Amino acid sequence: MNRLIVFVLLGSILLSSCNRKVGAIFGRKGDKLEVADPEFQYLSAKAKFKYDDGKKGISAIANFRIKKDSLIWMSITPGLGIEVARVLMNREQVFILDKINKQYYEYTFDELSKAYDFDFTFKIMQSVILGNLVEPYRRQKIDKSEDYFSYTASKGVYLFQNFIGSKSMKLEKVEVFDEETKNSISVNYSDFILVSGQVFPNEITAKIDYESATQANKEINISYSRMVIQEAPISFPYAVPSKYERK
Known about the structure:
Elements: H1 3-14, E1 42-52, E2 57-67, E3 71-77, E4 85-89, E5 93-98, E6 103-108, H2 109-116, H3 122-130, E7 143-144, E8 148-155, E9 158-165, E10 171-178, E11 184-195, E12 198-209, E13 218-230, E14 245-246
Parallel strand pairs: 6-14
Antiparallel strand pairs: 1-2, 1-13, 2-3, 3-4, 4-5, 5-6, 7-8, 8-9, 9-10, 10-11, 11-12, 12-13
């Protein structure tokens, strides 16, 4: 499995409404932006995803399972219905099975961040899938428009521009800029749905723009067809067959 497929697998993870009164956007002390983040312990979902870097395009079905703040699991199946890859993430590492080439990969998030010039963490992956704020509101200046409440947060060399829908009270767009590499990523969330009383984005589109010509710009689209909050624990099957080669 080459770096392209590894990136697609990670990108597809990167990338799973209700009305509230505008007056309820802040907590009583005015120091907490109350975005409607979903509450659950276990979640399963099915989605179509597409990947395009201008030269190569890939379409497939992805089945997700999440144990909140702990595990993310994904199974990749193209149109033929045969599983070609499986991914498991915990808070420290990412594990990938390439069933076509009988190979497997293991990465720390630090290794992935260095390889792809972005700060990959479990928290970021989970936040992008669920449409949650990556960097929380800490009394930054809020800009208001008819459609959004927006604010800028920073962490290290990264700037996060967050756009919260004034009607959905969900994160509808986030733009991340790396001041060191000048790379940027934008993620748009739309078509929000209610699942067991919790609000999730049904459509996610991510665009990654690289300053360097050595990396091709990429676009990933995730469209959920099923999403279920599970009450009982669910399994996260991942095992490396003895004949697989580590790459």
